[in-house]
Write a structure and sequence with these properties.
The chain is of the alpha/beta class and about 300 residues long. It has 2 domains: about 10-180, 3-Layer(aba) Sandwich (Rossmann fold); about 185-285, 6-phosphogluconate dehydrogenase C-terminal like domain (6-phosphogluconate dehydrogenase C-terminal fold). The protein is built from 11 helices and 8 strands. The chain has helices spanning about 15-30, 45-55, 80-90, 110-115, 160-175, 180-210, 215-220, 220-230, 235-245, 245-270, 270-285; strands at about 10-15, 35-40, 60, 75, 100, 125-130, 150-155, 175-180. It has an 8-stranded mixed sheet with strand order 3-2-1-4-5-6-7-8, sandwiched between helices. β5 (about 100), α4 (about 110-115) and β6 form a beta-alpha-beta unit. α3 (about 80-90) runs parallel beside α4 and α6 packs across α10 (about 245-270).
Length: about 300
């Protein structure tokens, strides 16, 4: 396989927790690199981007997408649907040797957009399965990527050297790389990431509707905390994800609701053996999962 070339000009559309963390990794790996981010305000300063420039993470804060014509790798780090909307705007300025990647939690729709724009050979979908309930560049940290899975979804015609560059970057960032197709990605993440967020938010909303005087909140402890931590994530991001991965999410939700109804029925009937099996089967599978130890205690999928 052709060795992937050295790259030193990087661009970012979207620059929050994940975008900022990736940029910090790039700055550590390639100290002399040129890193730019787009200020979508255009007519006024973007405080977080200016902070990143002052700290040296960014080389330039741009208000013109034409500045991205010199980029060798562009990271789309905005919400899923926003990333897609920027592809058409960026297309006139993309160099033929520029790698396009994203960090979205849903892949099917961006792969479709990439295909429609004829950018298949340049695209390597990306999904760092990490993060925090905290948002924004100010909470970014290169360590967020360490010991996390970073999924790549190249197209069927992506240049092999582009995928290889992304693999090398992922490994250099301290993440674990896995390559898979976009359909498998969306089915898997619906079950282990998207539906858990919906479950978490639904539980919080249910408790909130019962908490008339703050007693529930006061007594909430470990179990509630662990199950609901991810409900503090960005509402905009999760609204985008639900609309983008609708079919896979609905399939998992239907099965989850079926299991809930079965558990409800068993509780109602006082079926001791069925309830024991319900909890036992969950424990058996859960105990086979070996979660990777991370340096960042706030990690989430």
């Amino acid at each position: 396989m052709k060795q992937s070339k050295q790259r030193s000009h990087f661009g970012f559309i979207g620059f929050g927790l994940i975008g900022g963390s990736i940029a910090r990794v790039l700055r550590n790996l390639y100290p002399e690199s040129h890193i730019i981010a787009y200020n979508y305000y255009e007519t006024k300063p973007h405080a977080r981007l200016e902070l990143a420039r002052q700290e040296g993470t960014l080389s330039l804060v741009s208000t013109s997408l034409s500045d991205f014509s010199s980029c060798e790798v562009i990271f789309l780090c905005a919400p899923v649907l926003t990333n897609i909307s920027y592809l058409k705007k960026l297309a006139p300025y993309l160099g033929h040797d520029c790698i396009i990647t994203d960090v979205g939690s849903v892949k099917g729709n961006i792969h479709k957009a990439i295909d429609e724009l004829g950018l298949n050979r340049q695209f390597v979908g990306g999904h760092p399965m990490t993060g925090s309930e905290k948002t924004g560049y100010e909470n970014s940290n290169a360590a967020i990527l360490q010991d996390a899975w970073y999924l790549l979804t190249p197209t069927k015609v992506t240049k092999p050297e582009y995928t290889e560059w992304m693999k090398n970057f992922v490994n250099s960032s301290g993440s674990y790389c896995m390559v898979l197709d976009e359909t498998s990605h969306d089915e898997i993440t619906a079950g282990i990431s998207h539906v858990p967020h919906i479950i978490s938010a639904a539980l919080v909303n249910t408790v909130a509707s019962h908490d008339k005087n703050g007693t529930y909140k006061k007594l909430a402890a470990g179990g509630f905390r662990d199950v609901t931590r991810i409900a503090s994530s960005s509402p905009e991001m999760w609204e985008n994800i639900c609309l983008s991965n609708k079919d896979s999410i609905l399939d998992f939700l239907d099965e989850y609701i079926k299991n809930l109804r079965q558990a409800r029925s068993e509780i109602e009937k006082g079926d001791s053996s069925a309830l024991t099996e319900f909890f036992s089967s969950a424990k058996t599978y859960r105990d086979t999962i070996h979660f990777k130890e991370t340096k960042n205690s706030s990690k989430e999928l």
